[in-house]
Amino acid sequence: MADSKDRKVRWKGRDASETALSSPMSGIYNAIKEWTPPSGIFADSSVLLLTNWEQAQLLNRACFGRPYPPATAPPPSSAPAYPPPIPGFGDPEAKDGMQLFQLGLEEAFFLSHEMKCIQIYYQTSEGERVFLSDDELWRRMLKKRLHFPQFYKAYSHLRSKRWVVTSGIQFGADFMAYRHHPSLVHSDYAVLVMSGEEKASRVSTWTDVHAMGRLCGSVAKTLLLMYVKRKDAAVDSTFPSCLEEFDVETVEVNRWLPEKNREADDKSQENSDLKDTE
């Protein structure tokens, strides 16, 4: 990935950059790590986390998960507020209340394994709650998502560099990568995770590359291919320790525009030729 300092930031609103600087993502992460771990229930292909008011605000600021049940009200017509209010839970008077957050598989495992700030349980048919260790949680997630190790490796790679990562399904991608909260900044990357183990590559033809490139270009995103490959084909992926046996390579796919890459002398000569023909 290119150095983010070399990329133009597309802020949302006049004061968005100042707001982001006053609330850096690293500071939010540190605050999350210091809280008393809330409990979550592994349910189908997500985790439902029960949080108090302060925990809900921090998850909201770091863009982990979403309030459950999701809001049905239409978004406001004005510029997005930061942090966006949690429906029915944004009032400070609700500090004594509790809020459910729905976490995706990668989000839940990152908070449990990497940040060690939540505890996840499984509820049996008899209603008993059984604590899931990282190994047990990993194996359950493996059953829910094909190539989960590769997807989680890509997700944690971006999060460890303090990118905000969300679902990319609306753009035909796996993830979207933002420099800060989506209410403050437009995303930089549409991410495709390339596990290297598919029978056919997801962008195996020029048509595939061109289609994704055109889609990303139309919404001012850069297509980022993340190749997550095993160092050893015989590695046992049934334990999270296998993550150390994966390498990550990133490739940015950009359209080449000749008119933006000409030498100054060539361009001057071209302008001169045009004048001569008039």
TrEMBL record:
Domain tRNA intron endonuclease N-terminal: from-to ranges: 40-124
Catalytic activity line of the entry: pretRNA = a 3'-half-tRNA molecule with a 5'-OH end + a 5'-half-tRNA molecule with a 2',3'-cyclic phosphate end + an intron with a 2',3'-cyclic phosphate and a 5'-hydroxyl terminus
Domain tRNA intron endonuclease catalytic: 151-232
EC code: 4.6.1.16
InterPro entries in the record: tRNA_endonuc-like_dom_sf, tRNA_intron_Endo_cat-like_sf, tRNA_intron_Endonuc_cat-like, tRNA_intron_Endonuc_N, tRNA_splic
Gene Ontology molecular-function annotations: tRNA-intron lyase activity
Transmembrane segments: none
GO annotation, cellular component aspect: nucleus
Family named by the database record: Belongs to the tRNA-intron endonuclease family.
Protein name: tRNA-intron lyase
